[in-house]
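Page 47, continued from p. 46.
Same chain as before, 115 aa.
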Amino acid sequence: MAVSILLGRTASKTKEELNEERYSRMVAEEKLEKVSQKVKSLESQVNATQSKTEDIRGVLDQEKKTSAQLKLELEKMTKLKEVLEKELKEALTSPALSPIESGESVSAVTPPVEP
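Result:
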């Protein structure tokens, strides 16, 4: 009889340990599922962030190209302005002014008309 009591206690203890094992496994599987969902969510966020980063890089590259083009255009305009200012200065200081600009009368430089 002592053997059957001992076997009953051993079986009861084994069953209790089995139940604890099942419970621990079930809790671990639930945690694993939650972590897996979290990982999927984070991966999705990473992909979205990478996509936005690529879009931003594309816009930045385009802005750099536009900036470079505008810089070249500004340099051209600056050179043209310098040339035009030089030509204007030369034209204003040139001795070959029209008679009106030089203060001479028109009759002094106009040949007489013959009848």
